[in-house]
Every structure is written in C-alpha cells, then in structure tokens.
Amino acid sequence: MFKKSTIGFFLxxxxxxxxxxxxxxxxxTKPGGAYPLEPLVSVQGGDExxxxxxxxxxxxxxxATPLTYVWAKVSDQQKILQTNQVRNPDEDDEEYNVRQLxxxxxxxxxxxxxxxxxxxxxxxxxxxxxxxxxxxPDGAADGFLKAGDRIIKMDEVAxxxxxxxxxxxxxxxxxxxxxxxxERDGKTESIEVELKPIPSEVSRAGLGISFTEDKEISTTPxxxxxxxxxxxxSAGLMFTLEILNQLIDEDLSKGYNVAGTxxxxxxxxxxxxxxxxxxxxxADEAGIEIFFAPDDELPEEVLKNNPSLRSNYLEAQExxxxxxxxxxxxxxxxxxDALAYLENLEAKK
Length: 349
Description:
- By secondary structure, this protein is an alpha+beta fold.
- The protein is 34% helix and 30% strand.
- The strands form five sheets. The protein has a six-stranded mixed beta sheet, with helices on both faces. Strands 5, 6, 7, 8, 9 and 12 form a six-stranded antiparallel beta sheet that branches.
C-alpha cells in the first residue's frame, strides 16, 4: 500500500501540473517585441542604405492557466482578457487565427496603397474573391465551408463584388441549393450547400457565414512583405513608413530607432489599437528612441459608457512616464503627422 506521504506527493504533483497547464476561460497578454521591418519588407530596387530602423511592435497573447492567471493579477506588465474581449461570438481558435492573419494582410494592403499614394507611384487593385472569416455553428455552411476559404463564384455569379453575392442570396429561399466554387489551400473545388434560415433573421435564407472582400494590390516597383506569422492590423502605420523609406532616397528615420503602432486606412488615417501600454514597455526594452502612437478621438457615447477610457496617445504617455523611459512618444492622427515629425527631426549624429 502507498504511504500517506506518497499519496500526498502525487496529489501535490497533480495540483502543480493542473495549475501550470490546465486552460481557463481567459487570456494573458504581456509585452512582446520590436521587429525591425527592413528584413520583412522589400521594395524592388528600393533604398537600402538607411542608418536608422523602422520597427513594428507586438504583444504576446496566450491562453491563461490558474498559475499564469494569478501571476497576471499581481504583475504590472501583464493583463487578463476575458475570452469575449479577444474572440468574436461563435468564433473558435482557428477562426480567430484566420481573422488575425487576414487583418494583417489587410493592413499590408492599406499600407502599400497609402505609401504609393504619398510617393506618387503607380498601383492597381483587383478583387480576388470573397474571404470567409467565420462559419456559424449549425448554419447552412457548417461542415461545408470554413474560415480561410475564398469564394470564387456562386452558381453563375462571380464574387468580384461581395454585394453581388449578397443580392443574389437575398432572392433565394430556405431549402434552395447553391453551388459554391471555392479556393482552399491553393486548390479549387465546388460544393453544394442547402440554404437555411439566418439565425439573426429567421425569415431570410443564407449560408450562415461572415465574410469580406479579398483585394490584391499590384505595384511598380513590386513590394514583398514577409510577416505571415504576425497577426492583427496594428502594424499598418509602420509598414507604410518602411515602404516609403525604401521608395525614396532619403532616410526617413534620420538614424534613429523608430517604432510605433496603429492601423492604416486607405485615406492615410491612423487608427486605434489595443495593448498600447504593453507595446510601450516592449519598445523601451528594445531600445526604441521614437514611438508613434495613434492620437485617436473617442466618441462621446463611448466615453459616457467607459469614462476611464483614454486615447492611445494619452495611455502611451502615462505608461512612458510610469516606467521612466527616455523614449519620445509622438501623437499621430495621419501618416502625414508622422512624416512631418520625421522631416523636422534633426539627424542623429
């Protein structure tokens, strides 16, 4: 028979293992790293002799365990996020990852367009199809389509415009069967799907998917971005600056280590992102000297419901002061704000 001490030892081991590895319904975020963009972004024939650097910032996100949850509670450099703060309703882990990678792809698209607009260089936009982000459980497409599929055609309707598919489905009834041509893992196949009621609109037939137009941009000179393992849209601003830095002869960085965060709109506007406090900490640890932060304006209704909410810039400033960094936090509303700051910056000796 086992001695009581042996049984106790095994129980303690089980508790330690459970606390270390058993997942709970929450996520932990903490500072990630600074990734220099020159190795990730390549403009054909572009300028490569710049002295400074442009970097994108990341945060680390992981599923919480009892042990990491407790540690995050007492840590100044970790945050706890509930699942509904990370994933959309009815979105599983795979669909979350697909959405994050698509957001990164979209941020690259917008960055290239904004940079080429600023540089006055030619580009062309084409629609590749409709990209599936999410398939609702028990919806018509459940078991047939999945996140990451690209719809090429539905019956005889091409998907070069997502509105054309929406209009086509609007004329259909529950029980109708549509043939969908998709691209999956580089291969094309056709799938028949019987339409069901849309959960939110039971009187209307649909596929039970969320989707977005998938566009492609062709440029002269050609741009290649290798950031497949980094998700989310927050690198848009820094992608734009790095592409511009390679498109023109001058060194936009003026010899400094420049980083920042913010989404990039086709219009050149810089948008709000999450986790900027952790990115400021990561930037300081990486020796970044200049950090661009979105100077977003929060709607009154949002502030009314969340009175403690602050703009990205103000939050970044507060964290910078708290950690005592010498890094300069620069507010930007548009790509022009960032360019104006760099243009007026004295070159580093």
